[in-house]
Amino acid sequence: MSQDLKAVWVHYPLLRICHVLLYMSRYIQQHRTDTATEMQRPPENIPLRCGRGQEDETVVVSIVEHPKDYIVWSMASIVCGNPLCLGLWAFYFSVKSRDQKMLGDLEGARSYGSTARCVNRGALALIIIGFILVLFFFLLFFS
Question: Is the pLDDT score of 54 beyond 70?
Answer without folding.
Answer: no
